[in-house]
Amino acid sequence: MANVIETIDTDTNLPANPDVMDAMLSAFGVLRTDAARTYFVASSGDDNNSGLSVAKPKKTIAAAVSSANGPARFVLGFGGHTIASTILYASGSVFEGLGGGLTTITFTGSSGAAFAPQSPDTRSYYVEFRRFVLSGPGKSTSTTGIDLSSVTSASIQDVVVRLFGTAIKITSSINGGAVFNYLQNVTASVCGTGFYLGPIGSNATKMLGCRANACDIGIDIVDANNTTWIGGQIELCTTGFRVSASQAAFSDANAFIATRFESNTLAWNVTSTNVRDTQILYPMQFAAYTFTDNGSRTTHLGSFIGSQRQISATQSVSGSYAFERSVNGGSETPLVVFRDPVTTAGTPVTVQAETERPAGFFFRGRRGGATYFDVRADGVINGSSSTTAARPSSTGLRPGAQWFDVTLGRPIWWSGSAWVDSSGAPV
Fold first, then answer.
1. The pTM is what?
2. Which of 32, 80, 187, 253 is most exposed, with minimal Cβ within 10 Å?
3. Distance of alpha carbon 102 from the chain centroid
4. Which residues pair with 213 in a beta bridge?
């Protein structure tokens, strides 16, 4: 490579020297191997070319795939590429752009997928998509960007898919037919559905640093298990993610870890009581906290350790509050526990409530529409009261419990066996 003066082939927009082209591809992380044939595609190429060298690239992706007639590596050069109808890929196919927005693909069809497997009813394996921007005709169309139906061990990395009915579709008619698929730094933008994981065999999908932006539904999980979404962002969607199951044991153990939810109308929606073990761990939420959760098992928020330290949701929430959960704590079971596990000396504050409103309240206790106590912003504690005949039951009372008896006109205390006045005399 030393002392090489490189020229650009004006017919292909690629370096004329194959060695220089290899060095450039390597710099972009695109490696040429002998594991499969490599076809080059350039917007200024010619479909009559062999496509097997940088000097003779194909013009269209469709022509390169047709010539390969099987698994191959397709290197997509600078500039724009157009797909008029679905590219049917074989197992082992690799589609690689140059990254950095240098490779763009536009799907001009009004329906169907830009990329789809040759045999969606049988398993395909080891398909890869890397480093390009794929645009479609609009989010209201019946189109899919990348279809991974019945594909196992696929990889999509550093890809942006925008303006499709569905950006990425992972589903299978075969039980367990779409498993162990991996997505990293994949963005679905302005789509009807960003990422669809559907029945009946879409399992164990891993999604790292992905993003759903301005979609009707960012991620739609339907009868799919063991999806793991780590990091990334779900923003400006009508619904951030949705999980549903047509029957028990479908849509189990899906997790969103350290994900940023920002300005979604509904952050998440777990719509079916058949859904089990959906986990939202360490979420970062901004602007929209509203969510719905009807799952029959536990949705975990925050630090999840074993079977403890969780908020268990069994009911849908309204949009009236910044954060609301309807939960069933069971007999003597706390609904929420805040615990400082450090036993060394110090002055920790376990819970702190703040308000800047002079007439506000720090805490309020209610049942059946009635307020039983509250703590005002000025420090006044408002307790409850009743007539002597309507004093509360002794069940659950501890010695020292206070009540105001309006018949007597003074406070009384529970001694452990009777109500007494300040002198200790029963009243």
1. 0.67
2. 80
3. 27
4. 189, 235
Residue 20 backbone phi and psi in degrees, to 5: -65, -40
Structural domains of the chain, count? 2
Please, are residues 62 and 105 in contact by the beta-carbon 8 Å criterion? no
Going by C-alpha positions, the residue among 306, 260, 265, 251 that lies closest to residue 280 is 260
**Which of 194-208, 270-284, 299-313 has maximum average pLDDT?**
194-208
CB 187, CB 160: distance < 8 Å: yes
Q: Residue 217 has which token pair?
A: 């539904």
Distance separating alpha carbons of residues 401 and 392, to the nearest angstrom: 11
Specify whether the CB–CB gap between 235 and 215 falls below 8 A. no
Please say which residue of 193, 215, 237 terminates a domain: 215
Domain that holds residue 375: 361-420
pLDDT over 60 (residue 197): yes
Is residue 334 over pLDDT 50? Answer: yes
345 assigned to some structural domain: no
Q: What is residue 390's DSSP assignment?
A: G
328 burial level (CB within 10 Å; 0-12, 13-18, 19+): exposed
| Contact indicator for 250, 274 with CB cutoff of 8 Å | yes
Residue 95 and residue 126: Cα distance in Å, rounded?
A: 12
For 256, what's the count of Cα atoms within 13 Å in the CB-facing half-sphere? Answer: 27
